[in-house]
Structures are given as structure tokens and as C-alpha cells.
Specification:
alpha+beta, Membrane-bound Lytic Murein Transglycosylase D, Chain A, Phage tail protein beta-alpha-beta fold, 4 domains, disordered C terminus
Length: about 425
Amino acid sequence: MSKPIPGLPYVVFPGDTLIGIAKKAYGQAREWKTIWKANEKTLVSGDPNLIYPGETLQIPVLVDLEKLKKGLTPDLADKDPDEMTIIVDGKEILFVEGSILRTMDTAADAWTASIAWFPEDEEISDLLRPFAYRPATAYLGGFKLVDGFLYTTAPNKTTAGITMTLEGFSSTIDLVDSTLKPPYVQKLVTLKQRAEEVCSPFGVGVVFEILVDPPFKKVTAEPTDKAFDHLAGLASQRGILISSTEDGELLFTEVTKDPPVGTINDDLPPQQSISARFDGRQRFNSYKAIGQSPGKTNKKAVAKDNAVPKTRFFTFRANDTTIGDIQTAADWRRSKQIADALTFPFPVSSWYSPDGNLWRENTLITVKSPIVYAPDGFDFLIRAVEYKSNKSGTTAILSLVPPNVFTKKAVETPWIEPTNPLNFF
């Protein structure tokens, strides 16, 4: 079997997927979209989840940093690498300050922008009319980061003038806000199938980067359940992360296995500070999952966090009927709770990581900082990135967490002595 090489054609072999081909060609599964966009008009199925042996794919060469610096980007041309762009219904919006937030374990990404508003400007005033739900996209350096809609407009008048704050979200925010549509009960359905069923009424696509997806014996929901909460509960029972793609699709993925993108220290950007808060009240030493089957005895599973030397219990319901999945739900809830407790913000002076690419969620970075008890360096997982732009320049805030909190591996941190690792599996 030949290996896919950027810049050369590749013949699809039995068992190939775009995710697998992207991993071999670029070392990153997320680049499957690069291959898909280059070939979507020629593939027989028209479906990125279905490619046939014998088909020929063109494997594109990724845009490098030198091209980026010249403003040649995949989405918007002639944009400076340090330029944030907000486009609402096809028109670029000039703003005073803005920010973009991307995360790896929530359903939606977001952006905000503050503009100087003149009500007599009829074109802009009509464009930003409340409850118009205009399509809106946020870019960094010409790269699309959040594609969705403008949901919120907040005008404010002071003696200094009139401003308006805009808030946009990826299309997946509708799954967070809205309740489920039927069917509320399905048998022998995979997570991907259930996700497509739930997302279809909202017009939200599903990208599934998980290779093994066994069916649930039975999935149940209530009419009052939120769509995302329902899917997140199912995903948690499989140890799967839910995020969103740059195009506003719902993304099911796993924690990265790639090496760190570089090393950073606690040299502070101008006008920023480093602070961390590690709250022991966010953790428990016992997480009990209860799964209920109609007319049957409740099934239970417990996950322990032996690093908490206190008696602290947390009990929740798991939406499935098989004991294996309920145990995974307990493990995953413990991992999520620990992740929330151990996450801290870390400011950086650029939108770009040491390898020259944009900082991205679900990547690793080595941090050397006595402030966070890592003077000799520790590899942290980037859980979220908030990109900021204002008159003072561009900065970013990385939300960092020890990398194994979302996996079934022992969690190692720079705060625990090597003789007492957080090994609770």
C-alpha cells in the first residue's frame, strides 16, 4: 500500500478513510477537511464519510508560514497574519476590539466585537438589526475559525458616543439552547447515528473522527432534554469529546496524540498577568453513575479519585442501559470534574505558537513557569484558546490542563510528588 504524500495523487485502498489518510499524509486527523475540499467535486459519493477503493485523491500541500505572512491564506486573501476579521452577511465589520473563543470540549465556539455605531448609517443599522440572525464568520489572519450567526447585539450610549457589542456563535449553539425533537427512544443505535438524528432538524452537520462506534442497546431521552446535553451524556459514556469545526459542524473527537508544538515560559505580555486557582471543592473522591432501565433494577458504577483524601461524593444519572457504558460514564464524569478543577489560564503575546501555526485547542504545549509550579517544564493540553485584538495589539489566553484528564491513562501533574501519582484506574 502506498503512503499518501502532499502534492501527489493517492489511490484509495480498501479500509481507507479521509481521517486515516490525513493522519498518514500530515500527521493530523483534522486535516481530513483539506483533502475533502480538494476532492469533493470528483468523489463518487459526495459524502466525506464514504470513499471507494480505486478512487484517486489529490493530496494538497498545506499552506506554510511564509505564505501566511504574505497574506495568502486558504479562506481570505490579502489579510495580515495579525488581523482579526468579522464578516456579517457578506459585509466586513470594522471594530474597536474583538475576541474569538475556540474550545475542545463544548459544542459551540464564539466571538465578540465592539464597534462604534452611528444609527444614521442605515446600511450598518439594518445589517445589525436585533433578532435578524444574520450569517456571520470570524477569521484570524484570513483563517476561518468560527462560522455561524450573529445572535446578540447590545447598543450602549454614553457621553463618549454610541457603541454596540456583537456576539456571534457557531451554528452548533442551537443544540445547546434547544430541546430535543423526537424520537426520544431508539434501540441499537450508534453514537454517530444518534447525533445525525438529533442534529438534522437544526441543519447542523456531524463530523465523526471516532473509528470504533458500537451501538447502544437502548437510548432514551425526555422531551425537555436539551439536544447537546443529551449527546454529551452519550459521548461521555464512550470517553469522547464533543466540539465544533470551523464550519459550524458538530465534531466528535479524541484527545490529541501529537507531540507538543513548542515551549513557552511565564514572560508576561504587556498589560497582562498570570494567575491560577486550583479549587479543591471542585473535586470528589467518589463518582457514582446510576443508569435506569424501565421496569428493571438500576445499574450503578463508581469511579474513584484517590488523590482526594476527603470523603466527598458525587452521584448522577447515566443515559444508557449497559453496565460497561455506565462505568465509562462514571470514569468520564470524574475526568471532566478533574479537568475543570485543574484548568488555568495562561496568557501569550501572539496568536501563533512556536511552530508558526495558530494556537489551537486540543494540542500540547510545554510550559516552564514557577508560577504554576512547573519550573522545569511540563506538557499541558490546550483546552481552549481565546484570541484577542484591540488597539494595543494582539494576544491570546490559553486554557491549560494536564493532558491525561480526558483519557483513561493515569493523570500526572506538576503539583503531585512522583511517589503519589493520580493513578486511579
